[in-house]
Design brief:
- By secondary structure, this protein is of the alpha+beta class.
- Strands 9, 10, 11, 12 and 13 form a five-stranded antiparallel β-sheet that branches. The protein has a four-stranded antiparallel β-sheet with strand order 5-6-7-8. It has a two-stranded antiparallel ribbon with strand order 1-2.
- Strand 10 and strand 11 form a beta hairpin.
- The longest helix has 21 residues.
- It is globular and about 80 Å long.
- InterPro entries: DUF8094.
- This is DUF8094 domain-containing protein.
- Pfam families: DUF8094.
- It comes from Streptomyces smyrnaeus.
Length: 354
């Protein structure tokens, strides 16, 4: 994945509206995650090893970059699927779909190759996880590197291949310090359902959904930040577009691509990259109201009006859970990954009881 498009589904009862905001892109420094042997009764113990060596991690990311750039050049999801999976691949496919709404210049800019620079690898000990993390910045030729770091997760698949499965760009240049064992390996959170600091990593997705449904960070598990403020404004903006004859209601989407990767931090908490699926239900507030889809929604539903629409958004976010106090949402990127018309104001979207 190169970049993300942050957006609000622009729909209204009289005419289609579009609100789309450009997001940010993908990032190489060396990091040591090796092991050292020790002598015991004059017998040298095997060197500790990680899920991958640092050299192997570099090789995997270099290959991902190469294939990703080729796929982006031709908007080729089949090729991209050989190196991407999970939530990040779903977002990438959505970006490819949305390109039909882009200008020629926007498409050309997106197809410019990019590279991950100032890479720092965070590798767990072998046997403790089947994934590793990389913190890096994105850079395209002739441009400065991205302002904020991305946190990317590469995971080993059942086939034995490695794929990039998650990617979140922080809105802070300072990320929490990760805890390491005696051999320099980072420590994954083995049970994300248990508290790892002030809350369980598994609760982060619920807290992000609360930003849509409970009016801001004060009523969620997050403390107020730029990211929480940005998400918290979405329901109000969307309802403003739909008034006076429509409304937007938010709930959890189908958790097909929801997953969390968490590492322990030096402060006794944890740092996590997680995905959240949010479903938006745009519906008329009177029987005669009609919703007209935005250009973004038309990618999925065509130029067809209906009494209601369901719109799916997929977030990939990063957060720090301190030992005490509320978690900090460090950054989030989201894509419209699907839309469908309802049969009436409260029409059901296939596969949901909403």
């Amino acid at each position: 994945m190169k970049s993300a498009v942050r957006g609000i589904a622009g729909v209204a009862c009289v005419s289609g509206l579009v609100l789309m905001v450009a997001g940010c892109g993908g990032g190489s420094e060396k990091d040591s995650a090796g092991g050292s042997g020790s002598a015991d009764d004059k017998k040298e113990q095997p060197a500790a090893v990680g899920v991958v060596s640092r050299a192997k991690a570099e090789q995997l990311v270099n290959h991902y970059e190469k294939v990703n750039n080729r796929a982006n050049k031709n908007s080729d999801p089949k090729l991209l699927s050989t190196v991407e999976g999970g939530a990040v691949f779903e977002q990438s496919k959505a970006v490819y779909k949305m390109q039909k709404n882009w200008s020629a210049k926007e498409r050309a800019d997106y197809r410019e190759p990019f590279h991950y620079v100032d890479r720092k690898f965070h590798i767990p000990r072998k046997g403790s996880a089947d994934w590793f993390a990389m913190v890096a910045y994105s850079k395209s030729p002739g441009e400065k590197k991205g302002k904020y770091p991305g946190v990317l997760i590469m995971e080993k698949q059942k086939s034995g291949d490695w794929k990039m499965v998650s990617s979140s760009y922080s809105e802070s240049k300072r990320l929490p310090k990760l805890a390491k064992d005696k051999d320099g390996f980072v420590k994954p959170v083995s049970d994300t359902a248990k508290k790892s600091g002030a809350m369980a990593p598994d609760s982060l997705s619920d807290s992000l959904l609360d930003l849509y449904t409970k009016k801001g960070a004060a009523n969620s598990g997050f403390r107020t930040s730029k990211s929480t403020d940005s998400i918290g404004k979405i329901p109000g903006s969307q309802n403003k577009l739909l008034r006076p004859y429509g409304e937007a209601v938010y709930s959890r989407g189908e958790a097909t691509h929801e997953k969390i990767h968490a590492l322990r931090t030096e402060d006794g908490g944890s740092f996590a990259v997680f995905s959240t699926q949010v479903r938006e239900h745009d519906r008329g507030t009177q029987v005669t109201a009609t919703i007209h889809p935005s250009d973004s929604m038309k990618v999925y539903v065509g130029n067809t009006s209906a009494p209601s629409f369901f719109v799916d958004w997929l977030h990939i976010s990063s957060a720090h859970i301190p030992a005490k106090g509320k978690a900090e949402l460090l950054g989030t990127e989201y894509e419209m990954t699907g839309a469908a018309a309802g049969s009436d104001q409260n029409g059901k979207m296939p596969g949901t009881d909403t």
